[in-house]
Design a protein that fits this description.
Blueprint: E1 2-3, H1 6-14, E2 20-21, E3 36-37, E4 40-49, E5 67-70, E6 75-85, E7 90-95, H2 98-101, E8 105-107, E9 112-113, E10 118-127, E11 133-136, E12 140-148, H3 171-175, H4 184-245, H5 248-277
Antiparallel strand pairs: 1-12, 2-6, 3-4, 4-6, 4-12, 5-11, 6-10, 7-9, 7-12, 8-10
Length: 282
C-alpha cells in the first residue's frame, strides 16, 4: 500500500474514469490554492442541512442551505460538493484541515473510505469554538488522503451493496441529531432555575430563622457582657495599685541623673584621647 502523491491524484482525477467528480479545477494544479496538495485533496461544502428542521423548512432535506452561521455548540450536516468514484484498489482517509479545526469546528464522523465507494461524503460538524463559524458552499471542509492498495479487494463497497450508490441524506438522520449538541440553552435555563430556587429557599430559611437568631443573640449578649465585666474590673484595679506603689517621678529623676553622668564620662574620655594624640613622637 502506498500514499498517493499529487501527480498520482491529478492523473486519477483527469483520467477517463475520474475518481472525483465536480472537483474545482484551478489554473495550475501545483498552485498553493489548488484543491490537490502534495499528498492530499481538499473536498468542499456542497449542501448544508440543519438538525431539528422539518423536511420543507430551510435547512431541511428538501431545502438545503448554501450558507449558514453555526453558533457555538450547534450542529449541522454538510454534504460535499464532490462525488467520489473510487476503484477497488483505492481507499481514503478524511479529516478536517487545520484551517477549519483551528477555528473550533469539530467533525464527528471523519474516517476511512472503503475501496469501491461511490457518492458524495457527508459529515456532522459541531462548532466548539467561542465565535460563530460560517459554513459556505464552496469552502474546504475535509482533507482526503488517498492510498493505493497492493492488491484489489475481493469485493468493493459498491458491489457489497448490490450496486446501490451512497443514499442521499434523509430526514431520519436529521431527526436523530440535536441542533444544540451541547444543550447550551437548556443547560443555561436549568442553571438559572436552580439558582432562583436556591435563592428563594435561603430567603425563606432566613425569614423563618430570624426570630430564633435574634433571641439567641439577646441571650448571649446578656451572658457575655457580665462575664467580661468582672475580669476587666480586676485588671483596672491592679493597674491603679501598681501606679500607687511606684513613684514615677522618682524613677524619672534617677534616669536623668544616670544620663548626665554618662555624658560627663564620655566628654572626659574624649579629652584624654585628644591629649595623647597631640604628643610628639619619640
Amino acid at each position: 500500500m502506498k500514499l498517493l502523491r499529487d501527480t498520482d491524484i491529478i492523473s486519477l482525477v483527469e483520467g477517463e474514469k475520474g475518481i472525483i467528480e465536480a472537483l474545482p479545477k484551478p489554473r495550475d494544479w501545483n498552485d498553493k490554492n489548488s484543491p490537490i496538495q502534495p499528498s492530499s485533496v481538499d473536498l468542499h461544502i456542497g449542501k448544508i442541512y440543519l438538525p431539528g428542521t422539518k423536511r420543507d423548512d430551510t435547512g431541511g432535506v428538501e431545502k438545503p442551505k448554501d450558507q449558514h452561521v453555526l453558533r457555538t455548540g450547534h450542529t449541522a450536516v454538510v454534504v460535499t460538493l464532490e462525488k467520489l468514484i473510487l476503484p477497488n484498489n483505492i481507499a481514503g482517509i478524511g479529516f478536517p484541515p487545520a484551517r477549519v479545526s483551528s477555528q473550533g469546528l469539530l467533525m464527528t464522523n471523519p474516517g476511512h473510505v472503503d475501496p469501491g465507494y461511490e457518492g458524495p461524503m457527508h459529515f456532522t460538524v459541531i462548532n466548539m469554538g467561542r465565535e460563530h463559524y460560517v459554513l459556505t458552499k464552496g469552502n474546504e471542509i475535509v482533507t482526503m488522503m488517498l492510498f493505493e492498495l497492493t492488491d484489489t479487494v475481493s469485493k468493493g463497497w459498491l458491489e457489497r451493496r448490490d450496486g446501490k450508490k451512497a443514499s442521499p441524506l434523509n430526514q431520519k438522520i436529521l431527526d436523530g441529531l440535536c441542533s444544540d449538541f451541547m444543550n447550551v440553552k437548556r443547560r443555561a435555563e436549568r442553571i438559572s432555575n436552580k439558582a432562583v430556587k436556591r435563592a428563594m429557599f435561603l430567603v425563606k430559611l432566613v425569614g423563618a430563622m430570624a426570630p430564633i437568631i435574634i433571641g439567641v443573640a439577646v441571650v448571649l449578649g446578656n451572658w457575655i457582657v457580665p462575664a467580661w465585666k468582672t475580669p476587666l474590673s480586676n485588671v483596672q484595679t491592679r493597674v491603679t495599685v501598681l501606679e500607687e506603689r511606684i513613684d514615677i517621678t522618682n524613677v524619672k529623676d534617677r534616669i536623668k541623673e544616670i544620663e548626665q553622668r554618662q555624658d560627663k564620662f564620655e566628654k572626659e574620655f574624649q579629652d584624654i584621647s585628644s591629649a595623647q594624640g597631640a604628643r610628639p613622637e619619640e
